[in-house]
Specification:
Length: 100
């Protein structure tokens, strides 16, 4: 699992790539911490999931942390596969994320 983080003036683009399971979530914890810190500072967060083919509950926990840090700025998610989209929707994440 890999996350590439690009920061511009007031926003953060995080491109996720790989299997976002328990091991993947552990591998990217440092990047997640960075995104949470940037979100807490008021940066708008956009996550590109076009490189993710699987997602599990440890990953969802990390996404919740990003959403909580973002406050009133809704986090955007793009490029989800049907499987990832279905997991997000069934988990109720479509209510706390802007899914594009």
């Amino acid at each position: 699992m890999k996350i590439t983080v690009q920061k511009s003036e007031e926003s953060v683009l995080a491109a996720f790539e790989g299997r976002y399971d328990n091991d993947g979530a552990t591998e990217v914890q440092g990047s997640i911490d960075e995104i949470v810190k940037l979100a807490s500072a008021g940066n708008r967060v956009s996550m590109d999931f076009s490189g993710v083919d699987f997602i599990s509950s440890p990953a969802l926990k990390q996404i919740v942390a990003i959403c909580e840090a973002s406050g009133e700025n809704k986090v955007e998610v793009t490029g989800m596969s049907k499987y990832v989209h279905d997991v997000m929707q069934l988990s109720g994440f479509d209510k706390i994320l802007t899914i594009l």
